[in-house]
Write the structure tokens for this entry.
Amino acid sequence: MARLVGSLLVGLLLILSCCFLNVKAAPAYFVFGDSLVDSGNNNYIATIARANMYPYGIDYPTGRPTGRFSNGLNVADFISRKLGAESVLPYLSPALTGNALLRGANFASAGVGILNDTGLQFVNIIRIPQQFQYFVQYKNRVSQILGVAAANRLVAGGLMSITLGGNDYVNNYYLLPVSARSVQYTLPAYTQYIVSEYKKHLRRMYDLGGRRILVTATGPLGCAPGVKISRSRNGKCAVELQRAASLFNSQLKSVINQLNREVSAQVFTFADSYSMNMGLFNNPAAYGFVNTADACCGQGRFNGVGLCTAVSNLCRNRDAYLFWDNYHPSQKANRIIVDNIFQGSSSVMSPLNLSQLMKLDN
């Protein structure tokens, strides 16, 4: 009974704030994907894919690790702030109740890919079908507070984002010198396969009620310190992984256009994070970066061996580094990428940047 009364009070307060007080709430935000946007879900499951140790989170407002693979905020956090809200909580967080629930939720899990066999070495991760199942649970929870129609409006009026693809190469196709997938497929054939599977996931997001869906490209995989240690002889970005990223992104962009035609609306938009990141690599001084080759935190060549830990080499000025650890951008790089997502031209955001997408009545 007490829980029911609490739910009714939350719904009543939402109605009062939005309608009687004429306060426009920030749109709800729903995050799907991998470690680039995971805000701590993996802290709640038995997995080795975790970032819950110092110095992860050293520049987060609390100064403590949160499960984000960053020295501070990740891309999803900066998007939340641009939308005018606090960061959405991990779906598995016990704190995701009341008003926090109505802001949306983060379903992402480090280590996942488009394919279910990606990330098997991490033992237990929240794969994309399970992330979608959690979202169905989320809608049911909100429906108990607001009713089904209002819950559907909350989702349709909000933003969904998804970030996938990198792990399907780094932690699958190229995981071993000769992997099962690399024996099964040539690189072009594998890319065509995973993009076709990705399209199914994207269509599922639409069927779940998403009407503003941000899809991010995979970044320059060959430039990650963790890739260069084994794939680069001269210290430059690994050519084969760069080729993989380019193949993937060009096909994914075509799929976005196909999906928009199929639903007869501009629902999906493509963020070319590869080109955004290469802009930082090619002109680092313009953005205040001093080092784009090494991770700020790590060990070995390029600081690219293993995760960042308390005994790793740690740079003094995190804002001078493009990479925080062996695979993940620094907080500063994440902020610049999100600025581009909201305001970028058609050369990096297609068909619309996020500011334009959020203005549409979908």
